[in-house]
Amino acid sequence: MDLSDINALITGGSSGIGKATAKAIVEAGGRAIIAARNKERLHSAAEEVGAIPVTCDVRHENEVIDLVEQTVEEFDDYNVLINNAGYGEFSKLVNLSASDIESQLKTNTIGAMMVARESAKHFIKQDYGNIINVSSSAGKRGFEGGTAYVASKFALSGMTECWRAELRPHNIRVMQINPSEVQTRFSQNAGRAERPFNETKLIAEDIAQTICSMLSLADRGFITETSVWATNPK
Length: 234
Prior knowledge:
Elements: E1 7-11, H1 16-27, E2 31-36, H2 39-49, E3 52-55, H3 61-74, E4 80-83, H4 98-126, E5 129-134, H5 147-167, E6 172-179, E7 182-183, H6 186-189, E8 202-203, H7 204-216, E9 225-228
Parallel strand pairs: 1-2, 1-4, 2-3, 4-5, 5-6, 6-9, 7-8
Helix pairs in contact: 1-2, 1-7, 3-4, 4-5
C-alpha cells in the first residue's frame, strides 16, 4: 500500500516505537490515531507528531470497543492496526506471583486480541486491512527471569498465526515484527535503572522504518514476520 493511504490506529502510541511509527506515517502523508493510558503524555506525543490522541487502557474491553468505534468514525477508511501496547516486568520463577503474569497477559496478549478483534470486524466489512503485531525477540526464545513477558509474547505469536489463517480470505494482511532490545522507556517502565544511550543499539525509529516498509509492500503480497537486531551491540 502507499504510505499516504494509511489510516492507522497505534496502541502504546505515547512513546517509543508507537510514537515513532505514528510520526513516520504522518510524515509520509498518512493519518494516525495513537492510544495509551497516560492522557498527559499521550496528548503531548500527539501534538508533537501530528496524530490524534484517544485515551485507552487496552486491559478494559469497554475502552477497547470505544477506541475502535472512535477510530472508524474518524477514519472512514480505517485500514491499519499496529498492536504495540505492552510492557515487561521480570522475575525468576520462584518469585513470580500469579497476579504478575496475569497483569502482563491482560495488556500484552488479551489487550492485543481485543483491539484486533474489534478492528477485524471493520476490516472484514470493507474486505481489506492490515494488522501488525509488535512482538519481541522474547517471543522467539526465553531467558532467565522472563517467564511472564516471554509467555505473553509467545502467545501473541500464536495468535498472529491464527488470525492470519482466518483473515487472509478477506484481504487482510496479518504481520508480526520482533525487535530485539530497543532504547525506549521500556527499561524504566519495567522498574530497571535508566541506561545511557548506546549508539550501537536499536532505536524506536529503526522499528518504525521497518513497520512502514512492511506496510509499503504492494497489497498482493505481505511479509508474514520479521525480526530486527542490532548489528554489533556493545
